[in-house]
Design goal:
D-Maltodextrin-Binding Protein, domain 2; 21% strand; 301 residues; rod-shaped; 3 domains; alpha/beta; 11 strands; Arc Repressor Mutant, subunit A
Length: 301
C-alpha cells in the first residue's frame, strides 16, 4: 500500500464512478480498476459493491477505510508542508528578549503576524525586568537569545552585535501636574539645569552615562537623582511635582493609563539616537530577517 493507492481509493470513493475517477487521476479506467482490486486483496476486505465495471455502493469496510485513508493523506500533506518549510528555512525557534523600557504594542503585533505567516517557527519571548535586564546583552552575545528588543544606547558600541532601528525616539521630559514646568509645551535642556530627577536603579549604565554626557555637552548639570526600582515608583515620585524623568516620546503609550496629570513634553533639542528602540542580533539569520519584516509591517499598519 502506498500514497498513490490511497489517493486513488479516495478519488474513486468521492466520485462513485471508475471512469470519472480515472479521468481525474489521468490514468485509464482498467488501470484504476486493477489498482483498486490489488488494494482490496492487500487489505483482505471488499471496498466497493460492483456490478461489472460500475460501482453500486460502498461497503462498510470501504466506509471505514475511507476515514482512515483521509487521515493518512492529511498527515502526509502536513509532513510535506513541514519538510518544505524546513527546506525553505521557515521552521525552527526564535528566542526574543524584550526590555521593559518601551511599549510592547509593535512587538506584540509582530509576534502575532509571525505566528500566522510562519506557524512552524516556535517563538519564545521573555521580558527582562529588574536585574535581569542587565544580563540582556550577555544572553544575546552568548546566543541564549536570537534577538533583543532594547535601546540603541545598550548595543551600539558592543562589538559583534548588529541592530536595526524599530522606532526613533524624540527626547522628552515627563513631569506631573504641580511641577513648575507643567504648563509648558516645549522645553530645552537648560530648563532642567540642576533640577531633581528620577531614574531607574537598574537602567543600563551605558544609557545613563550617555544621557549625562549629552546633557553636559549642552552645559546642563544633572541635578539630584532619585534611583527608583520600577516605573511605577518613578510615577509616584513624579506625582509630588518636584521631579522630572527623561523617557522620550516612545513612552507615551505607556502613559495612557495615567491620565492627563502627567505631561510628556518634547525637548527643543529634538531626537537623540541613543533612545531609539532597536532590534539587536548577533547573527542576522533568515528567521531574524522574517521577524524584522513583521516588525516593519506592524509599524506601517
Amino acid at each position: 500500500m502506498d500514497i498513490v493507492a490511497l489517493e486513488s481509493f479516495v478519488t474513486v470513493y468521492n466520485y462513485k464512478n471508475f471512469t470519472k475517477a480515472a479521468d481525474k487521476l489521468y490514468i485509464s479506467q482498467p488501470a484504476l480498476s486493477r489498482r483498486m482490486k490489488a488494494l482490496e486483496e492487500e487489505l483482505g476486505i471488499t471496498l466497493f459493491k460492483r456490478r461489472g465495471t460500475s460501482i453500486e455502493g460502498i461497503t462498510e469496510g470501504g466506509k471505514f477505510f475511507y476515514k482512515e485513508a483521509v487521515k493518512l493523506l492529511n498527515q502526509a500533506d502536513e509532513m510535506r508542508l513541514k519538510v518544505n518549510r524546513f527546506r525553505e528555512g521557515v521552521s525552527g525557534t526564535l528566542r526574543i528578549a524584550v526590555s521593559p523600557d518601551y511599549s510592547l504594542s509593535v512587538v506584540l503585533k509582530a509576534i502575532q503576524k509571525m505566528s500566522i505567516e510562519w506557524p512552524y517557527i516556535e517563538i519564545i519571548p521573555e521580558c527582562y525586568t529588574d536585574t535581569k535586564n542587565l544580563d540582556l546583552l550577555r544572553f544575546l552575545t552568548e546566543r541564549s537569545v536570537d534577538i533583543a528588543i532594547t535601546s540603541r544606547a545598550e548595543v551600539e558600541d558592543v562589538p559583534g552585535i548588529g541592530f536595526e532601528v524599530i522606532k526613533e525616539n524624540i527626547s522628552s521630559v515627563l513631569i506631573c501636574r504641580g511641577h513648575k514646568l507643567y504648563g509648558r509645551n516645549r522645553l530645552t535642556l537648560a530648563d532642567l539645569h540642576e533640577e531633581p530627577n528620577c531614574s531607574l536603579y537598574n537602567a543600563n549604565s551605558l544609557t545613563k552615562a550617555k544621557i549625562i554626557q549629552w546633557m553636559n555637552s549642552m552645559d546642563v548639570r544633572v541635578g539630584p537623582t532619585v534611583y527608583c526600582r520600577s516605573y511605577q515608583e518613578i510615577m509616584l515620585y513624579l506625582s509630588t511635582g518636584k521631579y522630572y524623568c527623561l523617557p522620550g516620546v516612545l513612552a507615551n503609550e505607556l502613559l495612557q493609563s495615567y491620565g492627563d496629570d502627567f505631561h510628556n513634553i518634547p525637548l527643543i533639542e529634538g531626537q537623540v539616537p541613543i533612545g531609539d528602540q532597536v532590534l539587536a542580533y548577533v547573527e542576522k539569520t533568515e528567521t531574524v530577517e522574517k521577524f524584522l519584516k513583521c516588525i516593519k509591517d506592524s509599524i506601517d499598519v
